[in-house]
Design brief:
6 helices, about 130 residues, Rossmann fold
Amino acid sequence: MAAAVTPDGACGQLLNEALDRRWEPVLSPLLVEELGEVLARAKFRRWFTEAEAERFVGDLRRIADEVTDPPAVRAQRVRDPDDEFLVALVGVARVEALVSGDAHLLGLEDIGAPVVTPAEFLVWLRARP
């Protein structure tokens, strides 16, 4: 969402790095659905139209690796139960990192990959050969 609102910010820069094939975002149908629902909210109309939001989601799907949703879990590893699927997705997708600005997710350990902010991931990405 942040990449759509502030294209010059860390998330926007990460999106550009993905377009340059320096890394591949991972999506699942549940993530795509959530992103579409959030970007359709009226509060985002000051940045883009609904059609532009739909195009953004579609474009993101074209550059991402889309995996199946993980099975539902109730492990209660995060404060927000709606975020449990992200932790499960880490295991299913075998990602290098879970990139999030969500305070509920940052600091989680032993989930199969580090949880880092977009800015931290951008620094890591640009430091690799």
